[in-house]
Amino acid sequence: MRAATFYVLPALLALLTACSTPGSRPDAAPSSAKGNTPAYLTAATGCAVVAGGAIGSKFADPKIAAFWDKVNASVTTELHDRLVLGQYKTVKLLVPTEDAASNEQIVITALAKNRCNRLLQVSHTVDEDSAGKYFRFDVTVMHLEPKGDRPPGASGTNVTTVGEFARAYRFPRTAMSFESFYTGTFAETVLTDLKQSGALEKLR
Question: What single DSSP character describes residue 32?
Fold first, then answer.
């Protein structure tokens, strides 16, 4: 069975800039000089929403969907806990299985509510290809920045998404792999990779 995948990132920019239109929120942050983007979104440093849970593959069987969303939530929680211990400014967001179809808007709301200018997303893919059955976690960090003198995009704003970290962690979908996979151990690996990449430095 092949599972369709659904990710937050592709639609993030359009939704986020739409939410930042003047008058859309009475408590909105002051707009930056370029376009209608709130100033906190383009600040040099800030906090990150660490999003996981129901972000990734979808299944017809709700029990299977709930299982993988729970695994993702465990990985996300383990990673977030380690980031907190490292004194990085982060906010954990776990999307419930029943809200999977709305995960884009849930993430956008969390970014605006917490005034965070970065997203650290943990998504999962469960599929099969020529190399066999597998499960994979994709960890991505991104921020927004002004386009400068370039013309505004279709949304009418002068901001663009910029990736700071992107790595895929693939595992064979076998009994042996499941027995040896520990979410805490995996989170340690991801944390090490994030530190080495420098993607966490803006969260101090």
Answer: P
Structure tokens at 137: 């976690």
pLDDT tens per residue across span 87-143: 999 999 999 999 999 998 899 889 889 999 899 999 999 999 999 999 999 999 998
Number of Cβ within a 10 Å radius of residue 60: 9
Q: What is the dihedral of CA 168, 86, 13, 36, to 10 degrees?
A: -160
pTM of the predicted model over 0.90: no
Strands 118-129 and 48-53: parallel
Asked if residues 7 and 56 have their Cβ atoms less than 8 Å apart, the reply is yes
Nearest alpha carbon to residue 96 among 76, 115, 116, 112: 76
Is residue 173 within 8 Å of 133, Cβ to Cβ?
Answer: yes
The tens digit of pLDDT for each residue in 146-163 reads 666 555 444 444 556 689
